[in-house]
């Protein structure tokens, strides 16, 4: 097949067209103030393609902030469960490779032992259109956790910038191939690749720590006073976890009137103070540094024990969004240094 | 991961409970009650291991994990003993016979009861920790021929909070069974043991555990100790067991981490690389030694 290109106008037209179809949910990059967010699109959404990275991740589309898992009616003689609306097919446009690569990671969790069909069903029905990176900042570290600016993991279609207003499209999966075929009238832009694109290459993002060393250090240093130092500034606001593509903790709550109700899964975070509070009042992670230790340890040690992979894609969002200046990359580099120094 | 392979009990949505009718509610202590839940058609048979728990739903209020105190197959009902501590349990305490409660489960690993066969069982319970252990005790009596002696060491805060009073009286009368109670501080009208339950496993204590200290060493090697109670209780019990070199793979403890989903997804009960809801809530002391102290 001939090479396929899409430019800003055609991309806008395509997303606008898809949004018209009420049977599909479409997510794309929308500008709010100076920042761009992955948002659910409607007819009035103002798309923006000139962004370095969105503030939030595409997790928004696959693990919604609030998701009904049960709908019920309370009668005099019992409780009747009602059907939930079926999961619609999804199109997610504009995530980065560090977003898409979180999907196979998350699948491991939602697919082990008991299956969380809500996530898995969405994953089955989603088309992930990723835009390869052509910019980076000091918080990016995808190459240190096995990613790259053009990593294809988790994507169905990968777009690579060839000029200031358009991309070359590459189908990664069967789903992606079909999508390009079905929407070929948008992927037929006449673009001439310009010199200087893509602006960055894999070597521009150097590997700055060894995740194996970090795991070993974490295993041996649960009680290390360094954790207090790492978590000292943490405000326990959980912003880092909400923008993280791989943080997946959730709460389950009921919202009900007298006769009917909905039970929802809602985003929760291990960095929030009451996340682990027992019914007795005892809280095993009552200090903010203990919660921060959990966040790092879960990603860089426990998740590897459980599912064989680091649960971090190196997107750097948590560092960008932290109001208190807690920088995960600095911490990981420091752990790497400690591990090298201590030999453990 | 292959362990704990169990199909979701209802259909594809693993969060769907079934609804059972409350057939009886009995006051236990001033903060605890017993609830008998009738299993609806299609759910009469429960594949249950003592120590496992269920997620109970109060429609419109929420869901909480509660360990099963007993499964009574002949009555097709489940017994839950519940303390009034939070929003959901408070609502459950207000419920009346005939109302419906949502149930999903059982979840968790339960006690490795098969391994206990032929052995003495020492049960150390603090407060409402005796609730989940009741299922072990009932199992013991139902399958008495499979086991050796049973000893229940129970500590309550005060006489008003003692649970299973009547049962304990009847347990005491049974063959091979001893049952000891202590309350935290001396109180008027109480002439029994006082002090924490760990004192009952103290070799210097006049009324200490018979199986652990008074029997021959061979008995000790043929004994398992099950501990359920607040985490602060664990340390003192384990210290005493350490003093007498009790083997760490024969002690089992139940963790009570905060849980939401019960199926290893939501992350609340995460303790190191274990999910307490799936890998636990029962852990051997040996396992616990390798885990991060986050329980």
Give a short synopsis of this structure:
The complex is a heterodimer of chains A (344) and B (295). By secondary structure, chain A is an alpha/beta fold.
Number of strands of chain A: 11
Residue runs with pLDDT of under 50 for 5 or more positions of chain B? 1-11
Could you tell me how far the N terminus lies from the C terminus of chain A, measured between alpha carbons in angstroms? 52 Å
Q: What is the share of helical residues of chain B?
A: 10-25%
Q: Please, how many domains of chain A?
A: 2
Mean pLDDT of chain B: 89
**In sequence order, what are the helices and strands of chain B, one letter per element?**
EEEEEEHEEHEHEEHHEHEEEHEH
When the domains of chain B are counted, the total is 2
Distance from first to last alpha carbon of chain B: 23 Å
Helix fraction of chain A?
25-40%
Any overview of this molecule?
By secondary structure, chain A is an alpha/beta fold. Chain A has 2 domains: 4-204, no CATH class; 211-342, no CATH class. Chain A has helices at 8-20, 59-62, 97-100, 102-110, 117-125, 174-182, 211-220, 226-231, 239-243, 288-307, 317-321, 328-342; strands at 4-7, 25-32, 35-40, 66-75, 78-82, 90-95, 126-131, 157-163, 166-171, 250-256, 260-267. Chain A has a 7-stranded mixed beta sheet with strand order 1-9-8-7-6-2-3. In chain A, strands 5-4-11-10 form a 4-stranded antiparallel beta sheet, with no helix packed on it. Chain A is globular, with a radius of gyration of 22 Å. Chain A starts with a strand and ends with a helix. The mean pLDDT of chain A is 93. By secondary structure, chain B is an alpha/beta fold. Chain B has 2 domains: 18-107, Elongation Factor Tu (Ef-tu), domain 3; 113-254, Rossmann fold, CATH 3.40.50.80. Chain B has 8 helices and 16 strands. Chain B has helices at residues 87-94, 130-142, 165-173, 210-214, 217-221, 231-243, 276-279, 285-290; strands at residues 18-27, 32-38, 53-58, 62-67, 70-72, 77-83, 100-107, 120-126, 150-156, 177-183, 193-194, 223-228, 251-254, 270-271, 274-275, 282-284. In chain B, the strands form 3 sheets. A 7-stranded antiparallel beta sheet of chain B has the order 4-3-7-1-2-6-5. In chain B, strands 11-10-9-8-12-13-16 form a 7-stranded mixed beta sheet, with helices on both faces. In chain B, helix 6 links the parallel strand 12 and strand 13 (251-254). The two termini of chain B are 23 Å apart. At the A-B interface, strand 4, strand 5, strand 10, strand 11 and helix 10 of A face strand 4 and strand 14 of B.
């Amino acid at each position: 097949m001939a090479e396929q290109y899409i430019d800003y106008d055609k991309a806008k037209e395509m997303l606008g067209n898809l949004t018209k179809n009420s049977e599909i949910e479409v997510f794309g990059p929308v500008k709010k103030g100076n920042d761009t967010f992955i948002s659910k699109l409607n007819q009035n959404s103002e798309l923006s393609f000139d962004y370095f990275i969105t503030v939030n991740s595409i997790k928004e589309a696959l693990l919604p902030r609030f998701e009904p898992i049960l709908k019920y009616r309370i009668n005099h003689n019992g409780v009747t469960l009602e059907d939930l609306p079926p999961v619609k097919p999804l199109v997610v446009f504009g995530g980065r490779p560090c977003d898409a690569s979180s999907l196979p990671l998350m699948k491991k969790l939602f697919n082990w032992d008991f299956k969380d069909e809500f996530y898995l069903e969405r994953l089955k029905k989603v088309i992930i259109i990723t835009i390869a990176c052509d910019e980076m900042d000091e918080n990016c570290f995808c190459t240190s956790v096995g990613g790259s600016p053009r990593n294809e993991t988790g994507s169905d279609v990968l777009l690579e910038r060839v000029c200031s207003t358009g991309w070359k499209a590459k189908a990664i999966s069967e789903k992606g191939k079909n999508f390009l075929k079905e929407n070929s009238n948008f992927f037929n832009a006449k673009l001439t690749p310009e010199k200087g694109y893509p602006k960055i290459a894999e070597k521009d993002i150097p590997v700055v720590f060894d995740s194996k060393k970090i795991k070993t250090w974490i295993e041996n240093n649960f009680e290390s006073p360094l954790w207090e130092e790492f978590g000292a500034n943490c405000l326990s606001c959980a912003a880092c976890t909400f923008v993280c593509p791989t943080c997946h903790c959730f709460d389950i709550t009921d919202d009900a009137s007298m006769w009917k109700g909905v039970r929802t899964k809602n985003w929760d975070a291990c960095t929030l103070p009451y996340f682990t509070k027992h019914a007795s009042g005892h809280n095993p992670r009552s200090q903010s540094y203990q919660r921060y230790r959990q966040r790092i340890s879960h990603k860089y040690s426990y998740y590897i024990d459980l599912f064989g992979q680091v649960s971090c894609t190196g997107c750097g969002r948590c560092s960008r969004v932290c109001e208190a200046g807690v920088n995960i990359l600095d911490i990981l580099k420091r752990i790497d240094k400690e591990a090298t120094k201590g030999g453990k | 991961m292959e362990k704990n392979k169990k199909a979701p009990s209802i259909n594809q949505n693993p969060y769907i409970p079934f609804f059972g009718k409350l057939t009886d509610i009995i006051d236990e202590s001033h903060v605890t009650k017993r609830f008998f839940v009738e299993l609806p058609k299609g759910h009469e048979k429960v594949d249950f291991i003592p120590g496992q728990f269920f997620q109970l739903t109060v429609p419109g209020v929420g869901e909480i994990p509660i360990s099963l105190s007993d499964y009574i197959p002949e009555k097709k009902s489940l017994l839950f003993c519940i303390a009034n501590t939070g929003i959901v349990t408070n609502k459950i305490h207000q419920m009346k016979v005939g109302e419906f409660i949502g149930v999903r489960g059982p979840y968790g690993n339960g006690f490795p009861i098969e391994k206990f066969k032929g052995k003495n069982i020492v049960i150390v319970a603090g407060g409402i920790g005796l609730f989940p252990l009741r299922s072990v005790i009932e199992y013991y009596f139902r399958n008495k021929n499979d086991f050796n002696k049973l000893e229940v060491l129970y500590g309550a805060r005060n006489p008003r909070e003692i649970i299973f009073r009547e049962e304990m009286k009847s347990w005491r009368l049974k063959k091979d069974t001893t049952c000891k109670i202590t309350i935290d501080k001396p109180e008027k009208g109480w002439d029994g043991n006082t002090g924490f339950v760990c004192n009952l496993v103290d070799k210097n204590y006049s009324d200490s555990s018979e199986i652990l200290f008074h029997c021959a060493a061979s008995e000790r090697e043929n004994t398992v100790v099950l501990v359920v109670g607040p985490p602060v209780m664990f340390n003192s019990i384990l210290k005493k067991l350490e003093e007498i070199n009790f083997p760490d793979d024969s002690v089992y403890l139940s963790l009570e981490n905060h849980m939401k989903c019960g199926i290893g997804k939501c992350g609340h009960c995460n303790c190191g690389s274990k999910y307490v809801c799936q890998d636990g809530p029962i852990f051997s002391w040996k396992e616990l030694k390798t885990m991060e102290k986050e329980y």
